[in-house]
Amino acid sequence: MTSARPPGRVWAHVGQPFTPGTSPEPLHDVLIVGAGRMGSALALALTEHAPHLRTLLIEEGGLPNEDGATILAPGIWTLAHLPDTQREAARWTLERLRTLLGDDIQARAYLTLHGQPAPGRQPTRDLLAAQPASLALLDPDLLSYATAYEAHTYRPGTLAQTAAQAAIRRGTDLLLNTRATPHPGGHVTLERLTVTNTHQIVTHETHNLRAPLVVLATGAHAPAQAEHHLGVHTRHARAYRQTPHLATPSTEGAPILHVHGLTLRPQHGAYTLIPPIHHRDPHGYVPQGGQLTGVPTGLRRETLEDLVGLMDALPALATPDLHLGRSLADIPGAWLALPGGRPDAAPTHERLDDHAHLLLGGPHADTLGLWTADQLAQKIARETERGQ
Amino acid sequence: MTSARPPGRVWAHVGQPFTPGTSPEPLHDVLIVGAGRMGSALALALTEHAPHLRTLLIEEGGLPNEDGATILAPGIWTLAHLPDTQREAARWTLERLRTLLGDDIQARAYLTLHGQPAPGRQPTRDLLAAQPASLALLDPDLLSYATAYEAHTYRPGTLAQTAAQAAIRRGTDLLLNTRATPHPGGHVTLERLTVTNTHQIVTHETHNLRAPLVVLATGAHAPAQAEHHLGVHTRHARAYRQTPHLATPSTEGAPILHVHGLTLRPQHGAYTLIPPIHHRDPHGYVPQGGQLTGVPTGLRRETLEDLVGLMDALPALATPDLHLGRSLADIPGAWLALPGGRPDAAPTHERLDDHAHLLLGGPHADTLGLWTADQLAQKIARETERGQ
């Protein structure tokens, strides 16, 4: 263990000259590309497991990034869809979430709803007896049975910000509004971005850095970066997930409801819908709105079909409360990484080459992401200690 | 039963005036849109089950249509991937194929290859002892076990043509090079197409027909036509399937090989590859080539990934024998209907409204398509007899 380090430096915009130093030797041991929740969590975990390493966290947007999957993630920690082998990692993540977020994480009931009875299921009417507003969302004759799970909700954007700030307090450097392109050999090209008065994003200045270790934590973009810039082909994939708004009022204690893959998450006094991801989107797919009985919508067709298929079981979806939008821009959506190309895969990390790691969150990042980031930090700590 | 009818009329190009008659009453009882194998088979089956019905078969291209899924279908009848419940329908289809195609259908061995032993599997080296060229395609240490199935190969384009011609001999009318747009109430707009001397396809003349019954048999396009023109939403979907060429020589008696979803079909002294379809393509997806280590290919990325994943087991795929192409146009490909959105679904038909049926082939049309077309013909025969 080294002695406590002064807080890291933060370069937020191009007005602050980026001076990582002029030494020919790299001034950082680790460059983390992407300050979403996975990259930020890794930065923080590295300050714990490998405090001797000097880390620079680089983010193309701000903190939190408004464009990435982190800001639109549901923020639901739950055991509902996990195999037993991942429960320990989930419990560890929950403890960590509590430490980082304090009162910003809230316990909330989580009900999966079904048409048929089975062991562990109770009558939906009984479980929702104290929540008449929730019961009114659904048809209890079609969704007569439910299983209750433990769940906790939080804001993933807040998590990314909290973790990054904690890391900075412990010495991590942060470079915002900067696009990073990895190259073989631990080289990274940095483009510091600025916005012109015609709202174009342009490169203000370019830097070339080198570090013994680069971690790509840019979410759904990371596999493409690994392939295009490092020449490492992976089987990871991505899917474009939209999270439409359902304006039906929700109360403070309303449970999360899960019906045939669709999650209704109480949020801001209404609901955010998190539709199922059935499979990857093909290479080259451009997200686009669908049509409902001839009327253009912002919701993609596949999601629209899923919602239409659930309108009998969830009559609230058939009301004007469901915001369909008119064009893609009307519906919040983001590219979500699918580790290994699978929608049910846990977060993962892997070594790309001698100088680079990949860190991927994906659909289960809310429940398991912090654990995976910690695992990678431990691995990096072991390897760098061995190398010294 | 009515007495034998004279052969049907054929309008092949716009030089032949289309004169279905000027009576205000419809002159045809059934309009079949699409003369792929499903539409053609239905036309023929109707001459058997409902010889009293006057049928017009309408095709946007020629016979066979060079653009549709029929011409690129593998033409493999096999029980290898069928549940027991569909075996009878498959057997019926095989008998029918034999009747229609005679010597144009050939028995051929079909081997599914596996890494592990299991009941019914034999050592690959034993099964391929008499086929050293087939054995040389694969690594028998990785694909050590195989199951042999009965299979028969034929050309689906020939089947469509043969069935349509047989139907015409029995009185069905045929209208080629004509785009048909269905409307509610049994109305259909026909655009007779012609090609200008600058190779543009233009509408030469337009007709409006009406018939008590319209059958959409336009393959992957049919669900979109049902939705856009008849307002009937279905859950059918489609996928773009490419069938790349493997130039490794195949002998006359070479077996069909099936490895982890990929089928290698001996054809024209080489192989045609039929890649697995994992799931539907999303609405709005535009087929496009992928990249292999930075080099653009005509093969879509998802298929390329599957082939790369099989290169150890099938070393032939790692040789220049595999035609990757440079752009999409280099690789034969077509949109394939996925009944119910499922890649493993059997062919199906369904009523769309009082005047329209949908008839879909899809991935199992080679093995089950004729049976499904016959089922729809029987249903139409029953309903029209009852209605008379």
From TrEMBL, chains A, B:
Domain annotation FAD dependent oxidoreductase: ranges: 29-376
Cofactor list: FAD
Superkingdom of origin: Bacteria
Keywords: FAD, Flavoprotein, Oxidoreductase
PANTHER family: ELECTRON TRANSFER FLAVOPROTEIN-QUINONE OXIDOREDUCTASE YDIS-RELATED (PTHR43624:SF2)
UniProt family annotation: Belongs to the ETF-QO/FixC family.
Name recorded for this polypeptide: FAD dependent oxidoreductase domain-containing protein
